[in-house]
């Protein structure tokens, strides 16, 4: 087992809002099954809409850009060096409100679960109207 993963070895996942560069993911590496870790980029004007991770906690650290970060019904604008702590199963969302690409370092735990990684709740109340009400 290697304790080092070079940038070229990341598991890349193209997503609508940008790119997830999985640093540690149980598939295919499985080196550290207790956590997920990724560098996630979000294009200007895009976001990872309201969702939750069943039974998983998450930490979001802003590496670059300006993010409108929601945790439950609370919202804060985060910039470089700011962190959001998201309790297990808590609805949250991240939107790039800056003019440049935003880059986040995200960690979720636990990695192994019978639940899917995420549930999208962006189309149901109150989450479908929360940003407009703010």
Provide a concise account of the structure shown.
By secondary structure, the protein is mainly beta.
What labels describe this entry?
single chain; 134 residues; mainly beta; 6-stranded antiparallel beta sheet; 1 helix; 11 strands
Helix and strand arrangement:
Layout: E1 11-15, E2 18-24, E3 36-42, E4 47-52, E5 57-64, E6 67-71, E7 74-78, E8 83-86, E9 92-96, E10 102-109, E11 119-120, H1 130-133
Antiparallel strand pairs: 1-2, 2-3, 3-10, 4-9, 4-11, 5-8, 5-10, 6-7, 6-9
Structure notes:
The radius of gyration is 15 Å and the shape is globular. Strand 6 and strand 7 form a beta hairpin. The model has no long low-confidence stretch (mean pLDDT 86). It has 134 residues and is mainly beta. The strands form two sheets. Strands 1-2-3-10-5-8 form a six-stranded antiparallel sheet, with no helix packed on it. Strands 7-6-9-4-11 form a five-stranded antiparallel sheet, with no helix packed on it. It has one helix at residues 130-133; strands at residues 11-15, 18-24, 36-42, 47-52, 57-64, 67-71, 74-78, 83-86, 92-96, 102-109, 119-120. The protein starts with 10 loop residues before the first strand and ends with a helix.
